[in-house]
Design a protein that fits this description.
alpha/beta, 8 helices, 16% strand
């Protein structure tokens, strides 16, 4: 079976945030990810990771806009300077937590100028933090209306255009199913540029068990292909998190 990871922004939310690390370890996870950990003291997170011998697989970048703005703005031309300032903060945070991957969010934008700015920002970020693995993730427009990176072929094109060894794709099976209608075929086309996987079932973004996506087949394919990255549960539990962990096998 693949190496499974728990997204603590989505899972174990019946517990206070810092108690979710113990719950994840008890459930059998060896790694966690947290989308936006920035409002928590970094040392408190480091302590929980060490206490339960957990790895931090991924955090998002840039820090959230607490004034109600959109998540991410790496493809927003008017915010290029702000992205670069906030990216440096995210890298410091990722280094403190030992986060393997830093997900750079494009934000809401469109058109050739947005694409050019996104590529320019990613090239700068890859050079600014050469030892930090960076990811970009196609997100469907039902979940995030207007999100610039809303297509897997575009994601691949951008990764190949930037051509940096530390920039790869983040593959979310729910978004793949929503965007293309065929998650398994999309995975086959994107696996060579992918370093991190997130899973949820269609159509309700719940546990990756019964539903329209054949997860036993997908997990078997990951094993057969020798995929070495994390597979993170990023979904909305139907009931309590622990009650829905049968998909771990």
């Amino acid at each position: 079976m693949p190496k499974f990871c728990a997204n603590l922004t989505w899972l174990f939310t019946e517990l206070p945030f810092l108690e979710r690390f113990a719950a994840a370890k008890e459930a059998g996870f060896d790694a966690v990810e947290v989308l936006f950990p920035y409002d928590v003291n970094a040392q408190d997170i480091v302590n929980e990771l060490a206490r339960y011998e957990l790895k931090m697989a991924l955090i998002n970048c840039p820090p959230p806009n607490y004034t109600g703005g959109d998540q991410g703005f790496a493809a927003v031309p008017a915010l290029a300077d702000r992205f670069r300032r906030d990216f440096k903060r995210s890298v410091r945070y990722a280094k403190t937590l030992g986060a393997q991957h830093l997900h750079i969010m494009s934000g809401v934008s469109e058109g050739p100028e947005a694409k050019a700015v996104f590529i320019d920002n990613l090239r700068w970020a890859a050079a600014e933090a050469p030892n930090q693995s960076l990811t970009i993730e196609p997100i469907n427009n039902d979940t995030m209306p207007g999100y610039f990176l809303n297509d897997f072929d575009l994601g691949r094109e951008i990764v190949e255009t930037v051509n940096a060894p530390n920039l790869r794709l983040q593959f979310d099976t729910f978004h793949a199913a929503k965007i293309t209608g065929d998650m398994l075929a999309t995975w086959a086309a994107m696996r060579d540029v992918t370093v991190h996987v997130q899973v949820a079932q269609m159509p309700d973004r719940t546990e990756p068990d019964h539903g329209t996506i054949d997860y036993p087949a997908f997990f078997a394919a990951l094993d057969e292909e020798g995929y070495q990255g994390w597979v993170s549960g990023e979904y909305k539990p139907r009931n309590s998190t622990t009650d829905g962990l049968g998909w771990l096998g």
